[in-house]
Amino acid sequence: MRGIEKQILNIIKEVEETDEESIAFKLGISSEYAAGICSILVKDGYVEEQPKGKYKLTLKGKKMTSPVKITGPIGILKGGR
After folding, report:
1. Rg, Å, the chain Cα set
2. Whole-angstrom distance, CA of residue 76 vs CA of residue 21
3. Edge to edge, what strands does the sheet with 47-49 contain?
4. What is the DSSP secondary-structure string of 33-55?
5. How far is CA 8 from CA 42, 69, 70, 78, in A?
6. What is the distance between the alpha carbons of residues 65 and 57, in angstroms, rounded to a whole number?
7. Where do the domains of the chain lie?
8. pTM of the model
9. How confident is the model at residue 8 (pLDDT cuts 50, 70, 90)?
10. Residue 23 CA: distances (Å) to CA of 32, 47, 53, 60, 64
11. Class of domain 3-65
């Protein structure tokens, strides 16, 4: 997954449901480019398109935006257990 795709998933996560114009404004990209990326995310199952052009995360999309808990030696250095 590319960085722009992950950024869009995080934006949708923040507001639960949004449109491509809002995504474009927040990222400083064209709405056409945002629409293209959203189409890819829909096709790949990370996002579903709602009525009126809104986008919402699927369970697969939510998993991609979930924080990763680090365990083991690296986790201990970062304050984990």
Report:
1. 15
2. 42
3. 18-19, 54-57, 47-49
4. HHHHHHHHHHHTTSEEEPGGGEE
5. 12, 22, 24, 27
6. 10
7. 3-65
8. 0.77
9. very high
10. 11, 13, 12, 19, 18
11. mainly alpha
Q: What is the pLDDT of residues 14-68, one digit of tens each?
A: 999 999 999 999 999 999 999 999 999 999 999 999 988 899 999 999 999 877 5
**φ/ψ bin of 79: left (φ > 0), alpha (ψ from -120 to 50), beta (otherwise):** left
Q: Which residue has the tokens 């398109």?
A: 49
What is the chain's length?
81
In angstroms, the CA 41 to CA 58 distance is 10
